[in-house]
Design a protein that fits this description.
The protein is of the alpha+beta class. The protein contains 8 helices and 11 strands. The strands form 3 sheets. The protein has a 6-stranded antiparallel β-sheet. The chain is globular, with a radius of gyration of 19 Å. The chain starts with 6 loop residues before the first helix and ends in a 20-residue tail after the last helix.
């Protein structure tokens, strides 16, 4: 479904579990500042990696996306956490675990045009949920076999899943909204999203979390799978229970996207250990977080609190011995 904000759009979202709205973000005004920030970050990381001997050279391509791909290739994906906008839920958190907390990313999280669209789905009290990722998907042929599993999950073909499974049960009744958009064109060739329309009505299904068995078993996915190619500025909105994945990147270039979550303020996020913030409040504008440095500091504080302690279980419980996972 592709439409402006009409009753038809909301009905489609409620019935099918997803909706695409074209042109929510302005490629020049809203996306380019983030692209430029990442280009500078790639240069900074490359300089550090060369100085510390992690890589030997850095060609510095002109386009920021190509700089990120160059780093991914040279580091075998090890640079990804330094590019992401959250702490890892799969790996141990240390005092120096890298995370990108740039002001342009913060500006994107609370972009007015984006919040206008989100308000249509969940109302005017909007909380930015700390389940968020920047995803850079290199061509599959450039993904070496020794890239760590968690990095592959976020940068290669994504397994079939429902977003509710990556948060704890306290968020089962939260009106969580998935917000996905690409900074460059996302096509079937370079790895766009794929959904099973209407699958959110089935409830939470079995997910596997074992070597070679990740996500929803094929037998539970369903055959009515629809690819969702989009252009920069288009936004895909997802119900937390819709089954979705992304295709492999079989192109010669990268796919670059953001994967965000929002919910009504006051509802559980399912990631109580990570910090969210009030992105918009129609009732009290003073509740909104507007300072990117304050946002960066609450993530640094969370990292310090979680460093070198037993890692919380960030995921919804599931049946690990289910026969479909064997």
């Amino acid at each position: 479904m592709e439409a402006a904000f009409t009753g038809e759009l909301l009905h489609h979202f409620e019935e099918q579990g997803y909706a695409i709205v074209r042109g929510v973000l302005d490629p020049e005004k809203d996306i380019k500042p983030v692209v430029d920030e990442y280009g500078a970050l790639a240069d900074q990381l490359a300089k550090t990696y060369i100085e510390t001997g992690k890589i030997i050279s850095y060609e510095r391509p002109a386009a920021p996306i190509d700089r990120l791909l160059e780093l991914m290739k040279k580091t075998k994906g090890r640079c990804f956490q330094a590019l992401d906008i959250t702490l890892p839920a799969e790996d141990k958190i240390r005092h120096d675990t890298p995370i990108h907390l740039g002001p342009e990313v913060f500006g994107l999280l609370r972009n007015e045009r984006l919040l206008d669209a989100i308000e249509y789905f969940i109302g005017g009290e909007i909380y930015c949920v700390p389940v968020q990722h920047m995803r850079i998907k290199p061509p599959e042929k450039e993904m070496s076999n020794d890239v760590q599993v968690h990095t592959k999950t976020l940068t290669a073909r994504t397994y079939w899943h429902q977003d509710l499974v990556v948060v704890t049960e306290d968020a089962d009744q939260t009106k969580m909204l998935g917000v996905w958009f690409s900074l460059n064109e996302a096509t079937e060739e370079n790895g766009c999203l794929v959904v099973v329309p209407g699958s959110h009505k089935e409830g939470l299904v079995q997910h596997c979390n074992q070597p070679g068995k990740q996500g929803i078993p094929d037998a539970l996915v369903g055959e009515n799978q629809i690819a969702l190619p989009v252009k920069p500025g288009d936004v895909i909105f997802l119900h937390p229970l819709i089954k979705h994945s992304s295709l492999a990147n079989l192109s010669k270039s990268g796919r670059w996207s953001f994967d965000l979550r929002y919910c009504p303020t006051g509802q559980p996020t399912g990631r109580k250990w990570f910090p969210g913030f009030v992105a918009r409040s129609r009732k009290n504008r003073d509740d909104e977080m507007r300072d990117p440095e304050v946002w960066a500091n609450i993530w640094r504080d969370a990292r310090a609190a979680l460093a070198d302690v037993p890692r919380p279980d960030f995921h919804h419980s599931s049946a690990p011995n289910h026969p479909l996972c064997a």
